[in-house]
Amino acid sequence: MEGYEYLNNDVLRDTFKKASVLITGGSGFLGRHLSRAIRSLGAKVFLLGRRTYSESVAAHKLSELDSYNYTSLNLQNQTFLNDFFVKNHFDIVIHLAADSLRISGNNSPISVYENNIEGTLRLLEAIRVSKPIPVVMPSTVALYKQQQDARKLLHEYSPISLLNSYESSKLCCEHILENFHLQFGVPGVALRCSNIYGPEDLQLTRIIPDTIITFLKGKRPVIRSNGKHIYDFTYVHDAVLGMLLICEKLLSGREVSGIINLCSQQTASVLQLVTTIGNLMGLNHLTPKVLGNEKQVNVYNLDNSLLKKEVNWLPGTTLEHGLQETINWYKTNLDNLY
Question: Whose CA is closest to 137, among 195, 176, 89, 185?
Answer without folding.
Answer: 176
